[in-house]
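2024-03-11 09:14:02 INFO queue: dequeued item Arginine repressor, len=148
2024-03-11 09:14:02 INFO validating residues
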Amino acid sequence: MSEKQLRQTAIRELIGSSIVPNQEKLVELLAERGLKATQTTLSRDLNELGIWKGPEGYVLGNEAAPVRATKSELKKVVQSLMVSAELASNMLVLKTQPGRAQAIGYELDNIKLPLVVGNISGDDTIFIATRSEEDAMQLKQELEQLKG
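2024-03-11 09:14:37 INFO prediction written
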């Protein structure tokens, strides 16, 4: 077996048997097995293996991603991860805890809110496009209500 095959097999086993919240933890777990990998290599491996990152951490590609999230799932991530929301014309800019923007962005994509045209999630910031300033204001109010 090639080094790549060994590494990818180990990645599947690790993610399938435990919660792996981020790439740093994955590097650590692989090192415990005597396998070295850079973040670039891991990103490529995760993509090739069809592994995606959900709110809890990495999930194997053969585990069905939710087709449609519910408001209660969005509420959970908004309550625990959203720090602030600010209007910017027809956009809403959300600030999250470090490394958590993608979890909220993922739920926003899955719930398919009619006010949301799309979003771009970075590390701790999400840009959410809406059709109008009014839609952005309404979305801000809805997310703040979910936050509580």
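2024-03-11 09:14:37 INFO annotate: The longest strand covers residues 82-88.
2024-03-11 09:14:38 INFO item closed
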